[in-house]
Design goal:
With 238 residues, this protein is of the alpha+beta class. Helix content is 21%, strand content 30%. The strands form four sheets. Strands 7, 8, 9, 10, 13, 14, 15, 16 and 17 form a nine-stranded mixed beta sheet that branches. A four-stranded antiparallel beta sheet has the order 3-2-5-6. A two-stranded antiparallel ribbon has the order 1-4.
């Protein structure tokens, strides 16, 4: 059983706050009866209507997507650029990305229609571990990267301690490949952190999200998450 406002929000009709307004305004019926109490719980078999229009209660679904570069982490774009849900044309549920990756970043992105799941994962306190691999301009060494262990100030706020690994350096091209492990999910966080130590990012990929990797997937591929993987993510995010 779920709260009525959550079921309405989940169906994509309105935000939870708007759904509450609809309920208190008497615009919502359950099995034909107007329900205007916010605490009301409904089950899968209950027929919920908003303004006389029945809503369809979707099963929650969870996908792991290998986002290619050059795709927006959104469900639509006013400039008609490619968006991640273009890759899910045959998926009937109204899914959306959990957090985001930049347009030019590739790698793991989760998509779901479960608002609670995405809210939990996005909560700053419970962020799961994410591993990024960045190609940067400059020669990375321990001394340069050291400040990232303690945290660097970005837009007036210090980042949480991060771990790094130098995977390779190319002295001729003056570039390096650096692996960075972080828990937070601020906008452009990895690019900003590496820029803060004078290693501007040229290419970025998210290779791990909690225990999830891109194993077996090519850019543009997706797969359903296993129930164990969903549990493990929520376990890590508490
Ligand atoms: N950090 C970034 O800078 N960009 C991303 O897309 C993800 C993390």
């Amino acid at each position: 059983m779920e709260r009525l406002q959550k079921v309405i929000a989940h169906a994509g009709i309105a935000s939870r706050r708007k759904a509450e307004d609809y309920i208190t305004a008497g615009r919502v019926r359950v099995n034909g009866e107007v329900v205007n109490e916010l605490g009301t719980k409904v089950g899968k078999k209950d027929r919920v209507e908003v303004d006389g229009v029945p809503i369809y209660q979707e099963e929650p679904v969870y996908y792991l997507f290998y986002k290619p570069r050059g795709v927006i982490s959104a469900v639509s774009d006013d400039k008609n650029r490619a968006v991640v849900t273009d890759y899910f044309a045959e998926v009937p549920e109204r899914i959306y990305p959990v957090g985001r990756l930049d347009y030019d970043t590739s790698g793991i992105l989760l998509l779901t229609n479960d608002g609670d799941f995405s809210q939990k994962l996005a909560h700053p306190k419970h962020e799961v571990e994410k591993v990024y691999v960045a190609k940067v301009k400059g020669i990375a060494d321990k001394q340069t990267l050291q400040p990232l262990r303690k945290g660097v100030r970005i837009e007036g706020r210090k980042t949480a301690p991060a771990r790094y690994n130098i995977l390779s350096t190319d002295k001729k091209a003056e570039t390096s490949i650096v692996e960075l492990t972080i828990h937070e999910g601020r906008n452009h966080q990895v690019k900003n952190m590496l820029a803060a130590v004078n290693l501007p990012v040229q290419k970025l990929k998210r290779e791990r999200y909690g225990e999830l990797t891109l194993k077996g997937l090519q850019p543009g591929d997706y797969r359903r998450l296993h129930p164990k993987e969903i549990k493990s993510l929520l376990g890590q995010s508490k």
